[in-house]
Design brief:
Helices cover 13% and strands 36% of the residues. With 109 residues, it is mainly β.
């Protein structure tokens, strides 16, 4: 959608379903189901994102599985700090975090 340096949507080694919008976001080794909208400057790596997820600007998501219909807030970082991720989300021993909407809602409470 954008043709500016640092703001071009790109998907590398990823599968993106129909109806997705990669508006200036960067994807690597990820699978996006129908209707995912990734906003500008978001960075997504090693992710499985279920249908109708919205990813806010500047979000950094690494090693995540995101449940259907989740709204990822602007600037959320997951995958940088394993201890923090384990406190906020359900995380496997290998460092993969499951994110659901109730988990996101608790962050804002």
């Amino acid at each position: 959608m954008h043709d500016e340096d640092g703001r071009r949507g790109q998907a590398v080694t990823s599968l993106v379903s129909g109806g997705c919008i990669i508006s200036g976001a960067s994807l690597r080794r990820s699978l996006l189901f129908t209707g995912v909208h990734a906003h500008s400057y978001a960075s997504i790596e090693n992710a499985v994102i279920m249908p109708y997820v919205t990813i806010g600007r500047h979000a950094r998501l690494k090693n995540v599985v995101i449940d259907r219909g989740v709204n990822i807030p602007e600037g959320l970082a997951v995958g940088d700090d394993p201890e923090l991720d384990a406190k906020r989300f359900r995380t496997t021993a290998q460092g993969i975090s499951l994110i659901t909407q109730p988990m996101i809602d608790r962050l804002n409470a």
